[in-house]
Fold:
Amino acid sequence: MHATAFRYRPPVSPVAAANLEIGKVAVTVRLSFDGALYACRRPPGVVERMEAEALDLLSKGLFVSGIDTPVATVTGAAGHRFVQRSAEFQPPDGWLYQGMCGVGAGRNGLTLTGVLGYRLEVRAEWASRAGDCGPPGSAAEWCEVFGGQLASIGGVVLRRASVLSLGTPP
Structure:
């Protein structure tokens, strides 16, 4: 049986994201990947369409929990294996989590395999209804101010953020 194989590079912009408000806090979560995967499609297909299918598969069912902790947990419906390497406060309003993501997923004849770097950005700031509140000045203050609201979220389902995908609507 013939197949089309190619090297798939996810878009540089966030692949998946979520925006929500809880109480007086607005939270933005964005997930980006870096690197390339091996992609194979049986039966063969048009590479541009396969890239859209690959983005759909890579971004399917992404879920983030523990955004109030130093170790945020990321999971995906396709069985991606996320391993966090670092967490760094990004003044004035967020945390940056980085690590590696092992991908071994398939759907409808398309398979993706390889390892990508990932970047998870979590931003928390005062919502418009919070009034005139300044941003926290340190990681400890950020956790003190926003930690309770973030802990009450539990987890966030990320939706595909890229407009490049032609498949399932976000």
About this structure: The longest helix spans residues 139-153. The helical segments are 47-59, 139-153. Confidence is low (pLDDT under 50) at residues 164-170. The two ends are 32 Å apart (CA to CA).
